[in-house]
Every structure is written in structure tokens, then in C-alpha cells.
């Protein structure tokens, strides 16, 4: 009875992993990169590399905002930290009174999404500028009748030394890989998330069934048989699975929790979201503007209170007597506070006019269920993690990617005789090459295109993504015209060249190369260049070993990778 049960579970494990194995590989691969998406984006904007933090960035940022956006109702300043060496300022443009234009002959279709606008014949607020009489309405009535408008947020990057604005190249950077991981870039967002959610559920089944079918899973963890074909790949599969097994279970189950509203359609009401970006237009205010109090003393006071460096400063009601300054620390993280992974649980507030301390605001989950969901969401996104923890997550993600890849190769080996020269086996071999080394090469092409495309190219970010998918498609077609074993060797060698030469490309296209980054203490550039160079050496070694097997067994070129 037990053996029959184990055989059934083995069948479930094999086919659940194979059917969507290439999608799971892509999800693990892009998700692993996403742990360092901020660093990847920074590397892909070399215009920012010359900025060196000095410790006095807050005052420079305030001076810049006073020049560029003196009438903005809100400011936000993000200071340099271990993951970002430039100052980022965000401000909201002053909203103006807008009347919705008449559109005769066009009516809003029934069931259309609410855009936050009121009906056209409502909200006709007259102003002196329109030549009408000043209405007798109160301010509250004007506010209610005003037409809501979308007020965009403007983001500027500043040099940490000079305070001057830096205009980086257009790119989606690491966010593109993150979006691919979450919703399969290019598809309808909801459809993509449903597919990812379903794949995550299948992945969870594959992990649990894999633990069940291996009788000696932990004993086999210490066993590795070299040059034994399928057994060697099985040992590698077990090693990568068991070494990071807690991570694999956590990352899969937490992913299901994040997608639970999509996977459980009867909870669809929970997916409703408020249109927070649509704000009612404001009438012109003649209130006398006041100057912001110096922020440097407040930062020191906040850091003493919170025992942590300040990461972000938000200023609301800017220029008014009720101006408020809120400061968010980089430390004091709590994975139960929110489910978005940032872990920020406390912030302090000051009066923006006189600098008086207003108190602390502590974020906490409303109940134990919400706290549990927040923990799982935070662990999956890992935005709370420091550098060491993020590297642990990254290495675990690499092991998970290898686990999926070795599982796909094992199936090819086991079916090599039973499905010799069959269409199904050829399809799996082609997808193995294109889905694994092809995706790896396409990611490198994405990085190369970022540096080689003209700076002022129209839709530059979209061209980077087009080249990514073009390279991936060509890598999928490549094993159709080449023997599978040669395709493995050639694509691995291609990956090795692309990754090993990325530090050289950076040296020619950025102010900061690997050696100057080490000298300046720029851990982002140094870490990125060393990591991709290490991956390049690994791919080169794999290409060399594959070519050795090809020379020894030329007659078995169509049997997959041994």
C-alpha cells in the first residue's frame, strides 16, 4: 500500500514539475534577481555612479526643492543608504482648478471603471480668472464641487556632493525582472498573476511530493556521485532542494498567501482598491506662506530617539502654518507591521515651522491573523532585509533555480531510451536549452543593451525589453538547428562571455569601474561586477565540461546533457 502511494506521489511530482517546469524556472530566476532590483537599476543608470554620500544631503535637498517646487503641497526626500548612493526627491505639483470639458455625443459606457471624476454637469466652480462672479459658497462647498484631477508625482535625482540634479537614462532596470516575476511582463496584469498563482500552487505540490517520495532524502543530501549520468543529476537535484528546503517551502507558501485573493475568487471583494491618486482640485489659497525649519537638527534628534539612521523625510502641507515633517528610519524593522516587506513600524513627526516634536507613530497589525499574513508577505518580498539577509535569500533563490533546472534535465535522461527521437523528447530538450540558458543569456543581453543603446533613443526602456525577448526567442530557436548537446555548449559559452565582460563594459561606459568602486567603497558597483563575473566563470566551466562530454560521446549528442 505504501509503495503504491509513493509511486502515485512520484508520478504527481514528475508531471507537476515537468508541465510548468520552464515557467517555474523563469519565476525562480527573475525572483532571485529581484532581491537586488534596486542595485540592478542603479547599475543600469551609470549617470548616478559618480555621486558620493557626504552626510549633509538633507539640507541640499531642501534647498533644491525650495528652488524647483516652492509651491508644491508635499515633498519627500530619500537619503542615500547602502542600496542607493544618490538623493531622491519627490514632489507633487500644485493642483489647479480644472473643469471637465464637454464631450457631446460620448457617454460613459455602463459598467465602466470609476476614474474618480464627477459628472460633467456637476462641480462647476467659478473663479475670478474665468470672468464670473465670485460664488457665495463656503470653502468646503468649493472643495466638494471641485473636479478631481490626477496629480502626478515628480521624481528628481540629486548628486549627494553638489546637490545638482542628475538626469539618468530611461530604463526599467531591475523592476522589469520583478514585474516579470510577479505578473509575466507583457500580459494583462490580472491574467499574468493568475498564471503565476496557479504555477505557485503546482510548485508547492511538487515540493511536498518530492519530500514524500525520497525515503532517504536527508541521507542522500550528503551523497554526490560524480560522472554517473542521471544519478549525478539526481544527487544535485536533492542537494539543492534539501539545502534550502525551509526557504523553498516558505517562498512558495508565502507566494500563495500574496495571491490568495486571486486564487480564491469568492474573496474578490477584497481586491477592491481606493483610487488614492485621484485628488480633488484645490482652489487658490492666499494664505501667507511660511518657511520650513532647518531639518538637520531634527534628523539628529530623530536618530537619537529611534536609535537608527533616517532614510526618508516627508513634508506635508508644505509652506503652510500646519506644515508637518515625518521621518522614517532605515532600521527598527518589524515584519509583522505591514505585508509589503518594508518592515517600517515606527516614525516620528515634527512641526514644520518651529521644529517642535509631535510624537511617534507606531504601525502594528490589527490582529493575529493580519500579523501572520504580514509576516509571510514580508518574508516573500524581503524588503526589510539587510545586506547579509538579502544575500542569504539570493543564494537560496539560486539553489531553487538550480533545483528546478536539474529536475527538468533528470526527466530528459530518464526518458532518453523510451522516447528516443520522439517529438515530445525533442520538445523538452529544446525547451530545456531555451528556457534555462536562453533566459540567462537574454538577461545579460538586457544589461548590455542598457549600456549600448543611445541615451536619447525614443522609448529606450521598451527597446531594452524588446531586445531581451528577441534574444530569448533566438536562444529558443537555436537548438532547433543545432544538435542539442552543441546547443548547450554554445549557449553556455555565450553566457560566459556576456557575463564575464559586463565589468569591462561598465568600465568603458561609467565613471566608476570595478577597481575605483572598491577604492571609493561603492559596494553596489563592486558587488554587481564581481557577482556577474563569478556567474560568467561558472557558465564557462559548465560549457567546458559539456564540450568534454561531447568529445567523449559524439554518438550520444541527442540524448541530453550528462
Short summary:
Helix content is 53%, strand content 9%. It is α+β, with helices and mostly antiparallel strands and 562 residues long.
Task: Please describe what this structure looks like.
The protein is an alpha+beta fold and 562 residues long. It has helices spanning 2-19, 21-34, 37-43, 57-68, 139-145, 173-183, 189-213, 217-220, 230-243, 245-258, 260-263, 296-306, 368-381, 387-414, 423-452, 460-481, 484-500, 502-509, 514-520, 523-552, and strands spanning 74-78, 87-92, 148-150, 153-158, 165-166, 278-280, 310-316, 324-329, 346-351, 357-362. The chain has an eight-stranded antiparallel β-sheet with strand order 5-4-2-1-7-8-9-10. Strands 3-6 form a two-stranded antiparallel ribbon. Helix 1 packs antiparallel against helix 7 (189-213) and helix 2 packs parallel to helix 15 (423-452). The longest helix is centred in the last third of the chain and has 30 residues, at 423-452. It starts with a helix and ends in a 10-residue tail after the last helix.
The gyration radius over C-alpha positions equals 28 Å
Structural class: alpha+beta
E-strand count: 10
What's the SSE pattern? Answer: HHHHEEHEEEHHHHHHEHEEEEHHHHHHHH
Query: Major beta sheet, specifics?
Result: 8 strands, antiparallel
Distance between the termini: 34 Å
Lateral arrangement of strands in the main beta sheet: 5-4-2-1-7-8-9-10
Give the overall average pLDDT: 80
Q: How many helix segments?
A: 20
> What percentage of residues falls in helices of 4 or more residues?
40-55%
Strand content: 5-15%
- Indicate the overall shape: globular
Q: Unreliable stretches, pLDDT < 50, 5 or more residues?
A: 97-148, 268-286, 555-562
Amino acid at each position: 500500500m505504501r509503495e503504491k502511494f509513493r509511486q502515485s506521489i512520484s508520478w504527481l511530482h514528475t508531471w507537476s514539475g515537468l508541465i510548468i517546469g520552464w515557467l517555474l524556472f523563469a519565476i525562480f530566476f527573475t525572483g532571485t534577481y529581484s532581491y537586488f532590483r534596486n542595485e540592478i537599476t542603479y547599475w543600469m543608470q551609470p549617470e548616478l555612479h559618480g555621486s558620493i554620500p557626504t552626510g549633509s544631503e538633507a539640507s541640499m535637498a531642501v534647498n533644491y526643492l525650495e528652488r524647483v517646487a516652492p509651491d508644491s503641497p508635499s515633498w519627500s526626500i530619500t537619503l542615500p543608504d547602502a542600496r542607493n548612493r544618490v538623493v531622491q526627491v519627490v514632489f507633487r505639483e500644485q493642483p489647479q482648478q480644472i473643469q471637465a470639458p464637454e464631450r457631446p455625443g460620448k457617454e460613459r459606457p455602463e459598467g465602466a471603471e470609476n476614474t474618480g471624476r464627477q459628472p460633467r454637469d456637476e462641480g462647476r466652480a467659478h473663479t475670478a480668472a474665468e470672468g464670473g462672479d465670485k460664488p457665495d459658497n463656503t470653502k468646503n462647498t468649493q472643495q466638494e464641487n471641485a473636479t478631481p484631477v490626477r496629480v502626478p508625482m515628480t521624481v528628481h535625482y540629486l548628486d549627494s556632493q553638489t546637490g545638482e540634479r542628475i538626469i539618468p537614462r530611461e530604463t526599467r532596470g531591475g523592476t522589469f525582472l520583478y514585474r516579470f516575476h510577479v505578473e509575466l511582463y507583457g500580459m494583462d496584469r490580472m491574467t499574468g498573476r493568475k498564471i503565476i498563482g496557479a504555477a505557485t500552487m503546482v510548485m508547492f505540490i511538487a515540493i511536498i511530493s518530492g519530500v514524500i517520495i525520497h525515503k532517504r532524502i536527508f541521507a542522500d543530501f550528503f551523497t554526490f556521485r560524480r560522472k554517473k549520468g542521471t544519478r549525478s543529476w539526481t544527487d544535485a537535484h536533492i542537494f539543492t532542494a534539501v539545502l534550502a528546503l525551509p526557504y523553498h517551502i516558505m517562498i512558495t507558501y508565502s507566494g500563495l498567501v500574496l495571491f490568495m485573493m486571486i486564487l480564491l475568487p469568492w474573496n474578490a471583494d477584497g481586491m477592491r482598491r481606493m483610487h488614492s491618486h485621484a485628488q480633488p482640485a484645490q482652489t487658490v489659497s492666499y494664505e501667507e506662506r511660511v518657511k520650513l525649519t532647518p531639518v538637520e537638527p531634527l534628523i539628529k534628534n530623530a536618530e537619537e530617539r529611534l536609535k537608527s539612521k533616517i532614510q526618508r523625510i516627508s513634508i506635508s502641507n508644505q509652506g503652510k502654518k500646519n506644515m508637518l515633517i515625518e521621518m522614517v528610519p532605515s532600521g527598527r524593522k518589524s515584519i509583522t507591521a505591514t505585508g509589503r516587506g518594508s518592515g517600517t513600524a515606527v516614525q516620528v513627526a515634527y512641526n514644520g515651522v518651529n521644529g517642535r516634536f509631535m510624537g511617534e507613530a507606531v504601525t502594528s497589525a490589527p490582529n493575529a491573523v493580519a500579523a501572520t499574513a504580514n509576516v509571510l508577505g514580508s518574508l516573500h518580498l524581503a524588503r526589510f532585509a539587510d545586506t547579509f539577509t538579502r544575500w542569504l535569500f539570493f543564494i537560496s533563490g539560486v539553489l531553487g533555480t538550480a533545483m528546478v533546472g536539474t529536475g527538468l534535465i533528470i526527466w530528459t535522461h530518464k526518458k532518453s531510451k523510451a522516447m528516443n527521437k520522439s517529438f515530445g523528447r525533442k520538445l523538452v530538450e529544446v525547451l530545456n536549452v531555451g528556457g534555462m540558458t536562453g533566459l540567462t543569456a537574454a538577461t545579460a543581453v538586457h544589461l548590455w543593451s542598457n549600456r549600448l543603446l543611445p541615451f536619447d533613443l525614443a522609448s529606450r526602456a521598451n527597446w531594452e525589453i524588446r531586445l531581451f525577448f528577441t534574444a530569448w526567442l533566438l536562444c529558443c530557436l537555436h537548438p532547433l538547428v543545432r544538435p542539442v548537446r552543441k546547443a548547450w555548449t554554445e549557449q553556455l559559452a555565450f553566457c560566459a562571455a556576456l557575463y564575464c565582460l559586463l565589468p569591462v563594459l561598465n568600465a568603458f561606459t561609467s565613471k566608476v569601474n570595478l577597481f575605483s568602486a572598491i577604492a571609493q567603497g561603492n559596494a553596489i558597483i563592486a558587488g554587481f561586477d564581481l557577482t556577474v563575473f563569478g556567474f560568467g566563470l561558472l557558465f564557462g566551466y559548465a560549457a567546458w565540461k559539456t564540450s568534454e562530454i561531447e568529445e567523449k560521446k559524439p554518438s550520444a549528442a541527442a540524448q541530453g546533457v550528462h
